[in-house]
Design a protein that fits this description.
Blueprint lengths: L1 H22 L27 H10 L7 H6 L2 E5 L6 E2 L6 E5 L5 H10 L5 E4 L4
Antiparallel strand pairs: 1-3, 1-4, 2-3
Length: 127
């Protein structure tokens, strides 16, 4: 048993010596390619949704379809984006429920979209 341990130790020592010798050879530097992550702006939460969800989102986020007086009174909004901006909604990754003061929600969400914090939004209203 002792001789087996000695043989294994010698084998291990010899194999690590050859690795050190090959690593210190004069072949020049070893170049390693590092994959840079995509900028956050290039990542889209919406693109991860099914086509049906994307279609529904495009429909409800068309703000021009809503009456301006309804938008002024709206205090609950759904925002879509990677950045947490409200209470996370359980069934859709990247969907956030935002509560705003009446009259200021639309402006706040448009500013957030201009800044790149969110990709899309829509008012949470009954039709």
């Amino acid at each position: 048993m002792k001789s087996q341990a000695l043989v294994l130790s010698l084998l291990l020592l010899l194999s690590s010596t050859s690795l050190v010798a090959s690593a210190s050879s004069s072949e020049g530097p070893i170049l390693v390619s590092v994959h840079e992550p995509e900028p956050i702006e290039a990542f889209s939460i919406i693109s991860t949704y099914s086509l049906g969800v994307q279609s529904a989102l495009a429909r409800v986020s068309d703000i021009s379809q809503y009456d301006s007086s309804v938008l002024e009174q709206t205090t609950s909004w759904v925002a879509i984006g990677a950045t947490p901006v409200g209470e996370g909604l359980p069934h859709l990754n990247g969907a956030w429920l935002m509560t705003t003061d009446a009259g200021s929600g639309l402006g706040q969400l448009e500013s957030m979209m201009d800044e790149g914090l969110i990709e899309s939004f829509y008012p949470l209203i009954e039709k």
